[in-house]
Amino acid sequence: xxxxxxxxxxxxxxxxxxxxxxxxxxxxxxxxxxxxxxxxxxxxxxxxxxxxxxxxxxxxxxxxxxxxxxxxxxxxxxxxxxxxxxxxxxxxxxxxxxxxxxxxxxxxxxxxxxxxxxxxxxxxxxxxxxxxxxxxxxxxxxxxxxxxxxxxxxxxxxxxxxxxxxxxxxxxxxxxxxxxxxxxxxxxxxxxxxxxxxxxxxxxxxxxxxxxxxxxxxxxxxxxxxxxxxxxxxxxxxxxxxxxxxxxxxxxxxxxxxxxxxxxxxxxxxxxxxxxxxxxxxxxxxxxxxxxxxxxxxxxxxxxxxxxxx
Length: 310
Known about the structure:
Radius of gyration: 20 Å
Number of helices: 15
Oligomer: single chain
């Protein structure tokens, strides 16, 4: 058997065995948290907070909600309809697809806790800085009138568990909530499973076939272009952060610098072409340009700092 084929298959099985338990664990915790903290109550609570406090609350709300870059748009539109200020909207927009639980529960065990914490801290800083900037610039006029057309009803996580509705109402205990969270976790995995397999397959092929010298030249630690190039590569990818982890794991074995990997993950998580298109219907061009530029620059700065300091 060809050694490259064997190594590719072996690495694929290794990645799947490592990713799936971590994915189920992290999404279970998200589902359980949403059983106690509904999106509607959190959204309403943000309306009473102003300035930095409101932005910090928006960042926390964004981090604990299980959204990708596109699925956060309807909730954002609901916030626009509620009259929340632009600083809070911007902070939530950047923080909501940022997988804080992935950073701490998946990336940290796989790449080291310095990497996971740096990734999580970068998302927090970028979200708060962007929110504070648009707040001080009074960019509320950058919101289009038709922004609320994207809004849909939101609420706590729902899953069909086959239980009698009356029983759930009368006995909404921790066990029942845990059961729904577990079902949510497995349902989430089923929806993304093909993407996880695709990501693992790409990662395994990279590991088995892509020449180390090629990656080391363009994305290695010795290349000054590695971090910005990695950040730009992450922008057009719309797969989701979890399916990207196998690819990142393979890239790390090929000599790609950790700073470049962080920059890649930041833009892959926070930006996507469908998201930018939908946002263009909600916000004016100046705001869209700032949002995209802020995430890319933040990713590049984070990558360079990580390479220098760590």
